[in-house]
Specification:
Elements lengths: L4 E5 L6 H12 L2 E4 H14 L7 H8 L4 E5 L5 E5 L2 E2 L7 H10 L3 H17 L2 E5 L2 H5 L5 E6 L2 H14 L6 H17 L12 E4 L5 H17 L1
Parallel strand pairs: 1-6, 1-7, 2-6, 7-8
Antiparallel strand pairs: 3-4, 4-5
Helix pairs in contact: 1-9, 2-3, 2-4, 7-8
Length: 225
């Protein structure tokens, strides 16, 4: 029996990870946060004092480390770097910027794509990222392009960072969001774009609960077709 796959793409701060995790739980699917994989590689590079945009050095790091993805008793995805759980450490602004840089390296995307496709081949999955519906899982059963205004996404990210105890100011977060959008949409390797057969969902002004209900109903209708 073929496995079902749901691809949720969109810009940084659109709420993809949170909503995808909730959708997966509601449907009984496996949640795969692909951005966390790139963040883990970026953390490995930063720990070694390597510029995440330096393709040769990053590839050397990639071939010399072990990245694992697992699921804890909490049901959440955990990322492991050389056996150590780095799930919390990969959520800093510096690692976020580094993830954008390493994900722009074509050889990195090719190397990590097999991991993502293997997961989708063996389980029903909800996978979020920036090129899931266009590159990683072009044959996904449901494709969503989740977005919100840059200001809305910056506000959400700002509040999230404050809750984690990270001292930031809103204007800095907004600048980072806008800069990340530019990098993600203009990169040569699998740029962020809406797949032709994806449904666009704008959550600007919507609460978490409203966004979840909207997405879940939309996905269930699509799966039933």
């Amino acid at each position: 029996m073929s496995k079902k796959s749901i691809a949720i793409d969109g810009p940084s701060g659109a709420g993809k990870s949170t909503l995808a995790r909730q959708i997966a739980k509601a449907l009984g699917f496996l949640y795969v946060d692909t951005g966390a994989i790139y963040r883990t590689l970026a953390l490995a590079a930063l720990r070694r004092g390597i510029d995440p945009a330096n393709s040769a050095d990053v590839l050397e790091v990639l071939h010399g480390i072990k990245i694992d993805l697992g699921y804890g008793a909490d049901g959440l995805q955990h990322m492991y770097l050389d056996g150590a759980d780095v799930t919390e450490e990969i959520r800093t602004p510096a690692v976020s910027a580094g993830a954008s840089a390493v994900s722009a390296i074509p050889a990195v995307r090719t190397f990590l794509m097999d991991m993502q496709r293997d997961l989708a081949a063996s389980r029903d999955v909800v996978m979020d990222g920036r090129d899931i519906g266009t590159v990683v899982l072009p044959g996904a059963d449901v494709k969503i392009f989740l977005t919100a205004t840059a200001e809305e996404r910056a506000r959400r990210r700002y509040e999230e960072l404050l809750l984690r105890g990270t001292e930031v100011d809103y204007e800095t977060v907004l600048r980072d969001i806008v800069a990340r959008d530019e990098r993600d949409t203009s990169r040569a390797a699998a740029p962020l774009r809406q797949a032709e057969d994806a449904v666009a969902v704008d959550t600007t002004g919507k609460s978490q609960e409203e966004s979840f209900d909207l997405l879940l109903n939309l996905i269930r209708r699509q799966l039933a077709q």
